[in-house]
From TrEMBL:
This is Multiple sugar transport system substrate-binding protein. It comes from Nonomuraea endophytica. Residues 1-22 form the signal peptide. The keyword Transport applies. Keywords: Signal, Sugar transport, Transport. PROSITE patterns: PROKAR_LIPOPROTEIN, TAT. InterPro entries: Bact_solute-bd_prot1, SBP, TAT_signal. The keyword Transport applies.
Length: 476
């Protein structure tokens, strides 16, 4: 076990880092007597009546009481216990989590909840150091790219026994593709906190001005690129890009851009580099031409110039591929009218990555039953609806959440269709060398984006330098 812990620390520090889709936060430990108000980063919150302008307590109480909470044959503890939950945090989720914990405590009075919050960037290093020292919380946030490493090193506990004792679990309500990150040997080790595919988003105002039809499910990548060339206009601060951003090495590069043409960044088992295959060279060459010859996508200089003014979000890009989780932000903005449709297809078909994060129960936890009762309710359909998650893993929560967040119902239905039809975890990098592979490949590709090296030479260099790093991915 000591050797595993040392190996785990070394591997985990190298695990992939990606933006969090949805974060959890807030210290909500309840007290028998009135406690002093706590600071959350938004405003002072009363722990005995948590709420703020964004999440009024009365609204939260009414919603919580209106929802049907799942039942389990896993018994509540007979005496007081405390479970520690380690999560990433943002100031908005913080208050809602305080409210959820407040009402959960009323349903389960013997379960005290202690929260530990960390930024996403420092989370993995912090808790893998704790793992190396033999000390971990009961429940822990887990990015999809970390879990297989955790399973291999006996850090997380399988959930099958608890699922079997929870008749309302409704496994069919969770996308199968999105569960693959958290499964091993037929067992599930994590419950998704969120799950969403990527879509093709488009700026209706730019299309309307050009008199062009909106993208739809018939579109191929060739059609998208052809249209992007037509929609490019202007220069400098007023420039309109046909598509943004230029594709770069990323954990889901294969799924979104390469697999439609038969290419991959890494092999399916992530032990060999395939980004310099003829299929990948041809595909990425097409995008490089779109940048260097046609000026349709932002250059590195333009990306730097627009670092704080994203071309898509600011209305300066006609099309953009991103996760369904951005719809909440889009629904609130007034800068332009937008639409969404299926990602384009290539000769080998259409692929969209289903990605998300999870909560896991640590193997070392002495309160696994109480921890299960918490994550079972928190990540139930009612839990998602209470927390107004924009990309709920449970499909039954998509439509009510979309309505509450102002997301068009047809777009929510589109997301559900994609998750059921062609969303996949295939090609999405999730093993320990992911971050090193991406960080090594990116500056080489950026030299190609600057025209300093041709596409074949760049991809050959990536293959040569990334290949040795993949030894880390040969885990049991």
């Amino acid at each position: 076990m000591d050797m595993n812990r040392r190996r785990m620390l070394a591997l985990a520090v190298a695990a992939a880092s990606m933006p969090v889709i949805a974060a959890c936060g807030g210290d909500t430990r309840q007290q028998k007597q009135a406690a002093a108000p706590v600071k959350t980063g938004i405003q002072t919150i009363d722990p005995n009546r948590p709420g703020n302008d964004t999440w009024p307590f009365e609204e939260a109480e009414k919603l919580y009481n209106s929802l049907q909470w799942p039942k389990s044959d896993v018994a509540d503890p007979a005496a007081k216990v405390t479970i520690t939950i380690a999560s990433t945090s943002d100031v908005i989720a913080e208050v809602r989590n305080m409210q959820f914990d407040y009402f959960f405590k009323k349903r389960h009075p013997n379960i005290e909840i202690k929260r530990e919050t960390s930024t996403f960037d420092g989370f993995l290093t912090k808790y893998m150091a704790q793992a190396a020292g033999g000390s971990l919380p009961d429940v822990m946030y887990n990015h999809y790219s970390w879990t297989q490493n955790f399973i291999s090193n006996n850090i997380v506990a399988p959930l099958e026994d608890f699922i079997a004792r929870s008749p309302d679990f409704a496994r069919d309500d969770l996308p199968k593709a999105g569960l693959a990150y958290f499964e091993r040997g037929g067992k599930l080790y994590g419950l998704p906190t969120d799950m969403a595919p990527k879509l093709l988003f488009f700026n209706k105002d730019i299309f309307d001005k050009a008199g062009l039809k909106y993208p739809d499910e018939t579109w191929t990548f060739e059609k998208m690129i052809e249209t992007a060339k037509k929609l490019k206009s202007g220069s400098g601060a007023t420039k309109i890009f046909g598509f943004s951003p230029t594709p770069k090495p990323a954990p889901d590069l294969s799924t979104v851009f390469l697999m439609p043409y038969g290419g991959r960044f890494l092999s399916p088992d992530e032990t060999q580099v395939q980004i310099n295959s003829p299929e990948a060279v041809k595909t990425l060459g097409m995008w490089l031409d779109l940048l260097l010859k046609d000026g349709v996508t932002p250059s590195l200089a333009e990306e730097l110039l627009l670092e704080k003014v994203d071309p898509w979000k600011s209305g300066h890009a006609a099309m953009h591929i991103n996760g369904a989780w951005i719809m909440t932000e889009l629904a609130k903005q007034k800068a332009f009218k937008w639409g969404a449709t299926h990602v384009p297809k290539g000769p080998q078909g259409r692929f969209s990555p289903a990605v998300g994060s999870a909560l896991v129960i640590t193997e070392a936890s002495q309160q696994k039953e109480a921890a299960w009762l918490y994550i079972y309710e928190y990540l139930s359909s009612s839990g998602y609806q209470f927390r107004r998650i924009s990309a709920p893993a449970r499909q039954s929560a998509w439509l009510p959440n979309a309505e509450a967040l102002g997301i068009p119902a047809e777009t929510a239905e589109l997301v559900k269709e994609i998750l059921a039809d062609y969303a996949t975890s295939d090609g999405v990098l999730r093993l320990p060398a992911t971050k090193k592979a991406v960080d090594t490949a990116k500056p080489i590709w950026e030299r190609a984006m600057l025209g300093k090296i041709d596409v074949k030479a760049a991809l050959d260099e990536i293959a040569a330098k990334v290949g040795p790093l993949l030894a880390e991915n040969k885990i049991a």
